[in-house]
Amino acid sequence: MKKRNLLATLLIVTMLFAFVGCGNNNGNIADDGNTQTTENSTNTESSEAEETTTLTTQTTDDDSVSGNDSKTLVVYFSHSGNTRQIAENIQEKLDADIFEIKTVKEYSSDYNTVVDEAQEELNDNARPELSTTLDNIEQYETIIIGYPIWWGDMPMAVYTFLDTYDLSGKTIAPFCTHGGSGLSGTDDNIREEEKDATVLDGMAISDSAIDSSDGDVEEWLQECGISADNK
């Protein structure tokens, strides 16, 4: 009887130890699981925070395209896109700021109509109102200004720009795109408009040579002494 009681007692004790051991193992698995879940959550939140920071930085950079502390500004007026192509090429070469002259009243997309509009503005010596503005013109030392030749002159919107901003003491480098007329003396017209600025000799690029003008642009910038180092 005593042996049976002893065996029963030993059996009960053994079963108790086994139960406690199983309970502890389940607890450790649960803790590891919770810890792993917490770490994954923390890593996810950290990654999201880093991504947000990166996106914020990129947005800030994008927003400051026309205000990156450059001392050179590329200004252009373009209707067909030819002058824009040259202006953007120059801007990339110099890592300069860029500004597009736009008018409140848009010009027609029809060639014959815009020809008539341009002639009427020239005859009236008009100053069309601009829809784009610059708040920090004083920070720039060099202004590169581009335009197409309309009726042997700059579009009148370019005159509006020159009348609107004080370019005294600045260096102005003009360029134009044209269908065969060259600069048409427009660099001299700018000298007449901006008597207190230094106006460099301009560059004229034929509409038919836009896509092959990279070498001419490089040469002109070198002759003007303008480079990315001017920033």
Please state the CA-atom Rg, rounded to the nearest Å: 36 Å
Order of helices and strands: HEHEHEHEHEEH
Mean pLDDT comes to 79
Helix content: 40-55%
Which range does the strand content fall in?
5-15%
Low-pLDDT runs of 5+ residues are 6-65
User: What is the 3D shape?
Assistant: globular
Number of helical regions: 6
Characterize the largest beta sheet: strand count, sense, and whether it forms a barrel: 6 strands, parallel
Ends: how far apart?
Answer: 104 Å
Main structural class = alpha/beta
Q: What's the multimeric state? A: single chain
Beta strands, count: 6
Describe the structure.
This protein has 231 residues and is of the alpha/beta class. 50% of the residues lie in helices and 13% in strands. Strands 1, 2, 3, 4, 5 and 6 form a six-stranded parallel sheet that branches. α2 links the parallel β1 and β2. The longest helix is centred in the N-terminal third of the chain and has 62 residues.
